[in-house]
Amino acid sequence: MKRISKLKSLFLLCVTAVCVLNACNAGDSDHTPPSQLPEASGNVLPATSDPDAPEAPAASSEPQAPEQEKILIAYFSWSGNTERMAAYIKEQTGGDLYEIIPLTPYPTTSYTLWGESAREERDNNVRPEIRDPLPASTVAQYDTVFIGFPIWWHTAPMIIGTFLESYAWTDEVNIYPFFQGASNNNSEYYTNSMNFVRTCAQGAAVQEGLYAAASNTSAIDAYLAANGFTE
Ligand SMILES: Cc1cc2nc3c(=O)[nH]c(=O)nc-3n(C[C@H](O)[C@H](O)[C@H](O)COP(=O)(O)O)c2cc1C
Question: Is the pTM of this model over 0.85?
Fold first, then answer.
């Protein structure tokens, strides 16, 4: 009897020892030292069990391509020709369009009836107000700005001055003027318009302009290619 109770005690001792060891191992799994955790990486996407899910992109040590340049195409158009040009430039470059609209619209009647008032604006270097002007924080997101307009009285309409003088430009912003008129082959109009844009866009890198009929898509194509926007 004594021997049986001795064996019983031994058996209980063994069971207790096994339990204690298991308990210790279970506790360890919560306390793995940091050095033994899988290496942390911000680029690793969480694993997925969905077999149809797209594979995570392979981590690469290649340098990232520089951010694509952001293009704004701002334009003023009274009868739609500059607007067509702007739409074509958007199509070719993928830029964002913004129409400069006067707070007080110009009449829609023949400009022989009201054109004199636009000449007075030019002579007095007036800055007509813009309806819903773009916030400076929005314009600051663009490093390329196309600015389009019709020739008015041998130069740019004064509202182009309002737009350009609304922002603090730096030479990191390239400005590309594009314009057209009843005549599209007048060096004086070109020089006047470019001088006006340069004066109003102080600080920006104003590039040579595009002066061609709105329907002259080959001239627009050549200009965009020469400035590296298209091939
Ligand atoms: C007030 C006014 C003045 C203009 N002055 C000239 C000018 O000096 N030279 C010219 O070639 N065209 C002149 N034009 C014609 C416009 O430039 C031409 O019709 C242009 O295609 C209009 O562009 P839009 O449709 O974008 O407004 C003038 C038009 C207006 C309304």
Answer: no
Distance 78 CA to ligand 1 centre (A): 8
Instruction: Determine whether the shortest distance from the Cβ of 203 to ligand 1 is under 6 A.
Output: no
**Alpha-carbon distance 201 to 161, whole Å?**
8
Q: Which residue has the tokens 């730096």?
A: 170
Closest Cα to atom 18 of ligand 1: 181
In whole angstroms, how large is the CA radius of gyration of the chain?
35
How many alpha carbons lie under 13 Å from residue 222 in its C-beta half-sphere? Answer: 8
The residues, ordered by sequence, that sit 6+ positions from 155 with a Cβ below 8 Å of its Cβ are 122, 189, 192, 193, 196
Strands 101-102 and 130-131, how do they pair? antiparallel
- Decide if 37 contacts 61 (C-beta within 8 A): no
Contact 86, 148 (CB under 8 A): yes
Tokens of 91: 């199509």
Instruction: Give me the domains of the chain, ranges plus CATH numbers.
Output: 71-226 (3.40.50.360)
- Evaluate: CB of 78 within 6 angstroms of ligand 1: yes
Contact 62, 43 (CB under 8 A): no
pLDDT in tens, 112-162: 999 999 999 999 999 999 999 999 999 999 999 999 999 999 999 999 999
Write 28-31 long-range contacts (CB < 8 A, 24+). none
Query: Is there a contact between 127 and 163 (Cβ–Cβ < 8 Å)?
Result: no
Protein residue closest via CA to atom 2 of ligand 1: 152
